[in-house]
Design a protein that fits this description.
The protein is α/β, with parallel strands linked by helices and about 260 residues long. It folds into 2 domains: about 20-110, N-(1-d-carboxylethyl)-l-norvaline Dehydrogenase, domain 2; about 115-245, NAD(P)-binding Rossmann-like Domain (Rossmann fold, 3-Layer(aba) Sandwich), CATH 3.40.50.720. The chain is built from 11 helices and 6 strands. Strand 2 (about 165-170), helix 7 (about 175-180) and strand 3 (about 185) form a beta-alpha-beta unit. Helix 2 (about 20-50) packs across helix 4. The longest helix has about 30 residues, at about 20-50.
Length: about 260
């Protein structure tokens, strides 16, 4: 009775033992995490050589053996599944005397990616002490209030250590973040946190952040630095509007 609705819609079933079932779960999520870390490394290379990571990812995705999903560069993955399952797979391998170098590299690249985002902000803006930075998006992905291992939390923590003042907004995740970061300002919308800021850092690609009144955002800011960690906006358009605009893997001119 429990599985009857799934049978009716012809959901595939794999009948196996517990050990295999566990590895299926961990291996699947680790493979997807590997795709994310891979495209993030390609984004770093694209910035160095003047290539466009979006075109690279699109062309790769046309190959059916690869597919287009999870080839979106950004500040790294978070959430409850990918970080947990990659570490679980590494631990199982270690318990059995094996080293999974690809999965290990996936985790290492993901941790490094978050740090690279912070280093770019510092390199562009210089000392961050007493600078005001607006952070858009706190959850690890859009349409959830889940902040477990969200890149935004790491980035905010590092910016605070550098002496920056943080003004943050997220459509639903603010109550969760307030529990661990009560000291920062939480705004009512993107325009509220942009007011008086020296930089905007777009971390989570909520739909409402894709349709901002960009000219209004710029008019509210003290300085026009815009770090688009999800490549939501077009570099040429943003720069033509007067922003000092930086994205990921689209020749951001920050090496």
């Amino acid at each position: 009775d429990l599985y009857r609705p799934l049978y009716l819609i012809e959901t595939p079933f794999v009948i196996t033992n517990i050990e295999t079932a566990e590895l299926i779960k961990y291996a699947s999520n680790s493979f997807l995490a590997t795709k994310i870390s891979f495209i993030n490394e390609m984004a770093l290379l694209c910035d160095r050589v003047g290539a466009d990571v979006h075109v690279v990812a699109k062309a790769m995705g046309l190959d059916r053996r690869i597919g287009p999903k999870f080839l979106h560069p950004g500040p790294g993955y978070g959430g409850s599944c990918f970080p947990k399952d990659t570490r679980a797979l590494l631990n199982i391998a270690k318990e059995h005397g094996l080293e999974l170098k690809i999965v290990s590299a996936t985790v290492e690249v993901n941790e490094r990616q978050k740090g690279i985002m912070v280093e770019r902000i510092k390199k562009v803006m210089g000392p961050l002490k007493d600078r005001t930075i607006a952070v858009l998006g706190l959850s690890f992905k859009p349409n959830t209030n889940d902040i477990r291992e969200a890149p935004a939390l790491y980035i905010i923590g590092q910016l605070l250590q550098e002496g920056a003042t943080i003004r943050a907004y997220d459509p639903v995740a603010i109550p969760e973040v307030k529990k661990i970061l009560p000291e920062i300002y939480y705004g009512s919308d993107a325009y509220d946190v942009a007011e008086g800021s020296d930089a905007v850092v777009l971390v989570t690609e909520w739909n409402q952040f894709r349709n901002l009144d960009i000219q209004r955002i710029k008019s509210l800011m003290r300085q026009p630095y815009f770090f688009d960690l999800r490549n939501v906006y077009e570099p040429g358009t943003m720069r033509s509007l007067g922003f000092k605009y930086y994205s990921v893997g689209r020749n951001s001119e920050v090496l």
